[in-house]
């Protein structure tokens, strides 16, 4: 699996920080994950559920709402409406650059946003709410003591989940005036409601309200002893496994045998299917991953690193591993090491520049020896040696 960092432009002029979780083979379906209130796309639930779904073959986009995480914008300028437009812009970006999402997932207030947005997403097959409030205005209970100050001053700093954010009067007015019940009643796709009976922030009655309002087909799964944020790793994994199984009833996902990879006993095999454009599955004897070209190349979807970057990665990775082996053999701690490889290509000559950043505790003698050892890594030796490539037709 691979995580790719991307940037999503929005209609408001802000750029959203986002992360694309990709399976080892071409995604069988695409999904978007909306994170919890005042959290980020790096929250445990967002990260773990997205990555677990990637293990099930989904390509999953998770992003930071404006004013949070790595996204541009000021949180105090956001409302439930802007959350919805951020989600719509993320969905649009995914559809234009990779594939139209068939699954929409939201956690907490992100779940409310997903339910409110699902009716307008072309090609959507299913929506999932996790620990979501029935009415978005429920989140005001998190800062109930500050509401009067917000109304008096137009805004106020409040503490939510250990972090301080600014809540505006516009946010209050918008979130308390959202016609959520009608949106849920008119959902055009199947809905899965997931909630913990012991949720300490958004109680289980919210799940009951969502389930009652939603039309058939609909399903409910209790997350048993999970907390609101699904902080325990096992809870997120369980939720993702259930989502993948449930969604398979509504999303046309190829059977596992259709995606089996023929791993070679020797060398590396590149498998390019006609329908995948440039995306190429690379299979070794024990692993598989995807290479692709950037979206600047017509037809490419940037599902993985490009072949030249992978060559640089081989040199960088081999260098760090060779130095680690040497340090262990000599009995000293290498510590954290960073190897950066760049390339300058000119007619008839290619120069690779390798920059190694060592841990502070290493002395000058150790660093000098490690630089010498770096030149002995097998990939380095192969790249410097006389190389011949024989190509034959099978």
Give structural notes:
GO terms for molecular function: catalytic activity. It holds the Pfam family OsmC. It comes from Corynebacterium aquilae DSM 44791. This is AB hydrolase-1 domain-containing protein. The protein has eleven helices and 15 strands. With 394 residues, it is an alpha/beta fold. The protein folds into two domains: 246 residues, 3-Layer(aba) Sandwich (Rossmann fold); 78 residues, K homology (KH) domain (GMP Synthetase, Chain A, domain 3). Strands 1-2-4-3-5-6-9-10 form an eight-stranded mixed sheet, sandwiched between helices. Strands 11-12-13 form a three-stranded antiparallel sheet, with no helix packed on it. Strands 7-8 form a two-stranded antiparallel ribbon. Strand 12 and strand 13 form a beta hairpin. The longest helix is centred in the C-terminal third of the chain and has 24 residues.
Write the layout of secondary structure elements.
Layout: E1 2-9, E2 15-22, E3 29-34, H1 44-55, E4 58-63, H2 80-97, E5 103-107, H3 109-117, E6 126-130, H4 147-153, E7 155-160, E8 163-168, H5 169-176, H6 180-185, E9 191-195, H7 205-213, E10 218-222, H8 233-247, E11 269-271, E12 280-283, E13 288-291, H9 307-330, E14 338-346, E15 349-357, H10 364-374, H11 378-384
Parallel strand pairs: 3-4, 3-5, 5-6, 6-9, 9-10
Antiparallel strand pairs: 1-2, 2-4, 7-8, 11-12, 12-13, 14-15
Order of helices and strands: EEEHEHEHEHEEHHEHEHEEEHEEHH
CATH fold description of the largest domain? Rossmann fold
Q: Could you tell me the number of beta strands?
A: 15
The strands making up the biggest β-sheet line up spatially as 1-2-4-3-5-6-9-10
Low-confidence sequence ranges: none
């Amino acid at each position: 699996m691979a995580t790719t960092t991307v940037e999503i432009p929005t209609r408001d002029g802000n750029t959203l920080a986002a992360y694309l979780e990709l399976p080892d083979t071409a995604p069988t379906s695409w999904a978007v994950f909306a994170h919890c209130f005042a959290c980020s796309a790096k929250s445990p639930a967002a990260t773990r559920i997205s990555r677990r779904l990637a293990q099930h073959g989904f390509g999953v986009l998770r992003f930071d709402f404006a004013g949070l995480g790595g996204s541009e914008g000021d949180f105090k300028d956001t409302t439930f409406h802007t959350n919805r437009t951020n989600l719509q812009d993320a969905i649009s970006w995914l559809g234009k650059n990779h594939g139209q999402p068939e699954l929409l997932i939201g956690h907490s207030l992100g779940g409310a946003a997903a339910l409110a947005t699902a009716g307008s997403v072309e090609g959507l097959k299913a929506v999932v709410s996790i620990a979501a409030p029935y009415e978005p205005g429920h989140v005001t209970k998190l800062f109930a003591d500050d509401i009067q100050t917000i109304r008096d001053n137009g805004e106020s700093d409040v503490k939510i989940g250990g972090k301080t954010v600014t809540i505006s009067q516009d946010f209050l007015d918008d979130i308390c005036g959202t016609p959520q019940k009608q949106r849920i009643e008119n959902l055009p796709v199947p809905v899965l409601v997931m909630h913990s009976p012991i949720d300490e922030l958004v109680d289980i009655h919210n799940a009951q309200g969502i389930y009652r309002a939603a039309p058939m087909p609909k399903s409910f799964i209790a997350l048993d002893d999970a907390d609101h944020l699904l902080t325990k790793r096992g809870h997120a994994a369980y939720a993702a496994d259930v989502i993948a199984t449930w969604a398979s009833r509504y999303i046309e996902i190829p059977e596992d045998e259709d995606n089996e990879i023929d791993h070679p006993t020797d060398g590396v095999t590149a498998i390019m299917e006609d329908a995948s454009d440039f995306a190429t599955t690379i299979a070794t004897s024990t692993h598989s991953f995807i290479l692709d070209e950037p979206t600047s190349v017509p037809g490419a979807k940037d599902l993985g690193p490009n072949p030249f970057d992978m060559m640089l990665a081989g040199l960088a990775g081999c260098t760090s591993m060779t130095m680690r082996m040497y340090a262990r053999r000599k009995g000293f701690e290498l510590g954290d090491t960073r190897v950066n490889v760049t390339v300058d290509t000119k007619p008839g000559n290619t120069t690779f520049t390798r920059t190694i950043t060592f841990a502070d505790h290493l002395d000058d003698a150790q660093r000098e020896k490690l630089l010498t050892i770096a030149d002995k890594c097998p990939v380095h030796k192969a790249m410097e040696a006389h190389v011949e490539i024989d190509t034959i037709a099978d």
